[in-house]
Write a structure and sequence with these properties.
It is a single chain. The protein is mainly beta. It has strands spanning 8-9, 22-24, 31-32, 45-48, 54-55, 68-71, 78-80, 87-89, 94-97, 103-106, 113-114, 125-129, 136-137, 150-152, 159-160. Strands 7-8-9-11-13-15 form a 6-stranded mixed beta sheet, with no helix packed on it. Strands 1-3-5 form a 3-stranded parallel beta sheet, with no helix packed on it. Strands 2-4-6 form a 3-stranded parallel beta sheet, with no helix packed on it. A hairpin with a 4-residue loop joins strand 8 (87-89) and strand 9. The chain starts with 7 loop residues before the first strand and ends in a 12-residue tail after the last strand.
Amino acid sequence: GIPDSVISIGEGAFGGCSSLSSVVIPDSVTSIDKNAFSACSGLTSVAIPGSVTSIGNYAFCNCSSLTSIEVDSANPVFSSSADGKMLLSEDKTTLIEYPSAAGEVTIPAGVSIINSCAFESNSNITSVVIPEGVTSIGDYTFGGCENLTSVTIPDSVTSIGNSAFYSCYSLE
């Protein structure tokens, strides 16, 4: 496990560790940096304590087996969805990561921002419905989703980031 003396998980610290299956982050950690666990294809669960107040972009990007994201209810900045599959802001208005999304995906009502890399390189997604109220889609959000065939974008969206749909070859 991660020692209790660690206060930050650095950029790319565990990136690409395909044999890593679960992570319990100790209460001493306050930040998880960019790409800290990206491309950990075997990672199935992560527990984030209340002490973590900063999570960098792409921290869990390309972790397609990550089906359990447990955020301590005392965390003042982050939360997880009721099914434990999504990493969200504490008020559930920003969808940060949804690594295990598959098939037809509907973004939950109440979300207004879809963060960069929330779905990047997820070949398991076939369609996405973005609800009214979402205003922003981040950089690379759906980039590399090769099997994505349709996206419904409401009028409320006023910002779509760079390369948000790059390499979406099946998009009709």
